[in-house]
What we know:
Layout: H1 2-9, H2 26-48, H3 67-70, H4 80-91, H5 100-118, H6 124-127, H7 129-141, H8 146-260, H9 270-298, H10 304-362, H11 379-387, H12 392-410, E1 413-415, E2 432-434, H13 440-456, H14 463-475, H15 477-493, H16 498-507, H17 513-533, E3 540-542, H18 543-553, H19 559-569, E4 580-582, H20 597-621, E5 628-630, H21 631-641, H22 647-658, E6 677-679, H23 680-689
Antiparallel strand pairs: 1-2, 3-4, 5-6
Helix pairs in contact: 7-8, 14-15, 15-16, 17-18, 18-19, 19-20, 20-21, 20-23, 22-23
Amino acid sequence: MASQQSRCYSVLSVPSSRTRPSGVTIDDAFLLEAKNTQKRKLSQKRNTLPFQVSISGNLCPWPTYTTSQTILRNVKPCSDGYQKRTSSWQQEPFGIAKPRYLEQLENYLRKELLLVGLSKDSAQELKLQPYREIFEFFIEDFKTYKPLLCSITHQRERIRALEPLKAKLVTVNEDCNERILAMRAEERHEISMLKKEKMTLLKLIDKKNEEKISLQSEVSKLRKNLAEEYLNYLSERDARKILIADLNELRYQREDMSLAQSPGIWGEDPVKLTLALKMTRQDLTRTQMELNTMKANFGDVVPRRDFEMQQKTNKDLQEQLDSLRADYEEVRKEHEILLQLHMSTLKERDQFFFELQEIQRTSTPRPDWTKCEDVVAGGPERWQMLAEGKNSDQLVDVLLEEIGEGLLREKDFFPGLGYGESVPSFLRFEGLVENKKPTKKDVVNLLKDAWKERLTQEQKEKFPDFFFNFLERRFGPSDAIAWAYTIFENIKLFHSSEVMSQFYAVLMGKRSESVYVNQKETIAQLLKEMTNADSQKEGMLTMEQFSTVLKSTFPLKKEEKILELMEAGGWHPNSDNADFLNYRALFLEDEEGQSEPFVQKLWEQYVDEKDEYLQELKQELGIELYSDVTLPKLRGALMSIDSSLDKQTLNTYISQAFQLPVSELPEEGDGKEEGIVVRLQTALERLQVIDVRRRGPREQEPAS
C-alpha cells in the first residue's frame, strides 16, 4: 500500500512515533500523511487552473444528449487520432455550450495525459494518476457528495490492500490441505502396518498353541510308553530270577549225574548200583511230587512287589475303616443326643406355641423374637437368617412354617377329604393317603416342572385338572393322589416361598395364571434389555445404564420406584454412577426357589401398584364397599382413572368383575347394562385375582 502511494503521489514522509498519537499504527499514520500531502498538491493544482469554479457558484446545465460529443476516448494524447479528434472537436460548432468548469477539467486532463504519454517507460498505474486528480477535484468542489465519494475511494484502497492477504490465505489453505493429506496417508500406512503386524502375531500365537498341543500329546504318549516299559522290565526281572533258579537246579542235577557216571562206579557191585538206582528213582518220584505240589500251591502267587503294595493298601483301608467306625460311633451317639434334644425341643415348641396363643389371646405386647432362636432347628444363626428384614407378621409366618414343617414330617398319612363339591378335584379321595415326605427343594423343582409343562401346552383344561394329570404322568395313577395331598399340604404351609405361594394361589383360584405368566415375561424382557445394553457381553452394566434400562422398561413407574429397584440391585446413594453391576446375578434363584431381592422388589411393587389401582377405582366410584355398582358406572370409572385402556382389556376387567363371558357383555349404551349389578367389595376381590395394572400415565402427571 505504501509503495503504491509513493508511486502515485511521489515520495511521502512517514511521521515518527513521537508525533504519532497513541493507538495509531504506522500504516494508519502513513495513510494520514499521504492524504494530507495529496490535499496540498491538489490545492496547488487547482490554483493553476484558468478558472476557479466553486460548487456554490452557478454551473451551466449540460444536457445528457450532448455527452457523446464531450466524452474523451481512450486515445493517446500524442497520436494522430488524438490530434484529429482535437482539431475536429475544436472546429465543431456547438449548439449548446459546455460548462466552463467541465472544459477546464478536460483541458487539464489532456495536458496531464500528454505529459504521461511522453515517458515511454511509464507504468499503467502512473497513467491513472490524472484521472485520480480529476476525481479529487470533484470531491473537493462538490461538498454535498464528498462523504459518499470519499467512502468509494477508501473502499477501493481497502480492496487493493486486501488482495495480497487473499492470495496468502489461499496459499496457506493449500499448504494445510497438503499437510492434512500427507498426515492421513501416513496414518493409513501406519494402520496397515499395524494390521499386518497383528495378523502376523495372531498366526504366531496359533502356531505356538498348535506346537504346545502337539508337545502335550507327545508327552502323554511318552508317559504311557514309559509306564508300559516299566511293567515289562518288572516282568522281565521276575522271569529272570525264576530262570536263574531253574538253571541252578539243572546244574546241581547235572553234577549229581556226572558223579554217578564216574569210572570208579563201574567197578562197584551191581546189587549196590541197583539199590542206588532204586533209591534215586524214589527220590526223583518224591521230588516230582513236591514240584507238582508247589506248582499247585503257588501257581497263582503274585510277585512280592504287588503283594507288598496290596498289603500296604489293605493296611491303609483298615486304618480308614477303623477311623470311620470311630466317627460313626461318635455320630451315632450325637444322633441319639440330638433325638433326645429334638423330642425335648418338640415339647418346648408345643409349650411355647400354647403360650404364644395364650399371650395373643390375653394381651398384645411386642413379642421377643429372640426366644425363637433356641426353638428353630439350626439354632440362633439360622433364625437370624430367617428373620432378617422381616416384620412381626412375616416372622409369625416363618415360625409357623418351621413348626408346621416338623409336624408335617411326623405325619405318615393324610386323611382323605372325600368327594364333596367343596373339595378340589385333585383332592377327592376316601381313606388314608400316604405322606411322601419330600424335601422343600424337591417340591420347588416339581412345581417348576409343572409350570414349564403348563406354559408349553395349550391351556384347554383347568389348572387343578392339569395339575392332577401332570402328577399321573410323572408318578403314575397309583401314586398321583398321594403326591397331590403331599404337595398341597406343603404349598399351603410355606407362605414365604415365592414358588409355593404363587402356585397355591393359582391352584386354589385366588390368582389367575396370567399374573404368573406376565410376571415371568416382564422379568425375561428386563433381562433381554440389560443384555442388549451390555455391548461388551461381559455381564456387567454401569449404574447409569442400569437406570436407563429400568426407565425404558417401566415407563410408568415413578422416580422413587426406580430408585427402590436400583437399591435392591446393589446401588447406594453415595456410590458412583460409573460403578459396574453384575446384572445376571439379579435374576438367580437358590435351590429352594427364592429369588434375589431385586426380583422380590419387582413383585412387591406390582402388588402395591395393583392395590393402589383398585383403591383409585374405589375412590372414583365414591360408594361404600357393601354398595352395589352397575356395569356402566364401573366402565366409566375404569376409563376415568386409566384413559389408555383398550377395549379388549376393559372388557376383560368387566367380565371378571361381573363373572360374565366377554361375548355376553352388552354393548355400551344398551339399556340392559343398568340391570347388571354387583357388590363393590365382590368386584374388587374378583379383580384382585387377574392381572390388573395401569396401561397409561395418569392425566395429572406425564409418563416418566
